[in-house]
Structures are given as structure tokens and as C-alpha cells.
Amino acid sequence: MSGAIQRHILGSVGAGLGSLGSKRAASHVSPLTMSWLLGAAKQMSHVPNYEEKYRAKLQQRAREQGCASVADLKKNLTSGSIPKAPVESNTSGKQKKVSSNLPPTVKKLDDILRLDLLTERTGAEVGELWTAYHAGKPGVVSAAIPAETYRRLQETARKNPLFVLPLPRADQGVEFFLLQFDYHQVHFTSLAEYKVHTVQSRPVLTLTHYTDLMDHDIVLMRGELDPENRTFDVENAQLLALLMQLFYVSGGPKKRALLETFNHRPTEFDYAQLIDAAQTL
């Protein structure tokens, strides 16, 4: 992060929080707002069991691949037990180009699930397999995103690469998290920690978007939580991902205005307005 962007963020934090020194700022939160935020968090905690939801379809996939069970199918997707289908050279070149947009330390899509098996499926089938594969895995969230939705997300992010989101913390108010887009990744860091450690802050959550299958009209998202952080869990990650989508993609003019103010006129940014806007879908 450049010095200009760092001063930008610290300036917006100072303007928004003023003299607040605690990690969680309860003074901005009305009872109605807190009720809504906690309700949203509770709804996100009831995550559907995607393996149950798609059991019939997954069993069909397993039979097609000669697997005895869904568990065997999931295992085969990450192993070499199913013979690889030939991959056209132009597809391989596309994959290599996409992978170059991710840091070398990040797992490529083919390191998670066998890409040659995914390319044989429709976008809907890929989404089912991706979601079922990650269901129940500790410290991980996932999603299958329509390609057009992801294009809109990226378009907005190019103009507004930074933002803050409120996360409800029971009776202790709201904790703010700074998000930063970095190509096909999004990093979430505690705003209070960023004020202290700036660029040395450790993200509590990193979302990685795999665009290898955009020709299938789908982008696969995998979010990994910081395993050393005991105060941030999967439910928190799901709520932040939902709020990110609301402000960057599906929200109305009020949300877009807050996003642009934070990035381009940080001294005018109002954290109370942010929490108020987070109440509406």
C-alpha cells in the first residue's frame, strides 16, 4: 500500500471515529440498528447444508464417474484417481494467464479441485460441486458467483478499492473492518488494528476469486480465515462477504455514495451513515 493510500485510510479513520479509543464503537449504534445487525448475523449463521440440498445431483455425478459414494467423488476431485480428460491448448493458456493475477503463494484452482473435471460441467454443476466440497470445512467459506456479477464487482472495485464494513459484536457494539481489493483477492483487516499496525496488520479474512471458468459464466470464491484469530469465525466472514456485495454490487445510490465518499472524500465520511445504510438490502 502506498504512502498516499495509507494516509488516506488513516485520515478517514480519524474523521469517522474521532476520539474513540476502544476497539468496538457502541456509541454510534441505535437499538434498532443493533437489532437489525444481530438479526442479519443470526440469519447468516443458519447456513444451508449444501451437500444435503444437492445430494441427488451429487449422487448422480458420482455414478457418472464410477464412484461408490459422494464422499468418493469429492475425494476424486482432488486426486488423480479419475483419468484426466484432454484439455485444449487455448484453455490451458487462458488458465495460465488467470493464475498470474494471483500471488504465487495462493493455491491455484487446479490445486483445490481438478480443473479438467470442472471444465466438463455446466456452470450450475460446477457451483454445486464447489459449494458441496467446501461445506463443513473449518475456517473456510465459499461461493459460486455469476460472471456478470463479478464483472460489476471488479468494475466498482477499480474505482473504489477500499472500504469499511460494520460487524455486530453482541452487546459490545460494532467492530469496523477495512477491506482492500488486490486484483482477484479481497483482504479484510480490523480497522482498530490497522490504526496501530498499518501495513503490518494481519487480515482476518482473505477472499480469493478464481476466474478460470468465466466462459462457464461462473467465478468461484474461496475465503480463508486467519487460523490464529479466535474472535473471528465463519459466521463473521459470511456477513462481511454479504455486506461487501451489498455495497459494491446490489446496493442502491445511498450505498454507492458512501463507497465513493470513503475513497475520494474521506474527511466527509460518516460512520453513523454507514451503519444506517447497512440496515437495508
From TrEMBL:
Location of this chain's protein in the cell: Mitochondrion
Gene Ontology CC annotations of this record: mitochondrion
Location of the region described as Disordered in the Swiss-Prot/TrEMBL record: 79-101
Keyword terms of this UniProt record: Mitochondrion, Transit peptide
One GO biological process term: mitochondrial proton-transporting ATP synthase complex assembly
Segments crossing the lipid bilayer: none
Ranges of compositional bias, category Polar residues: 88-101
InterPro entries: ATP11
Domain of life: Eukaryota
Family membership: Belongs to the ATP11 family.
Name under which the protein is recorded: ATP synthase mitochondrial F1 complex assembly factor 1
Native source organism of the sequence: Coemansia pectinata
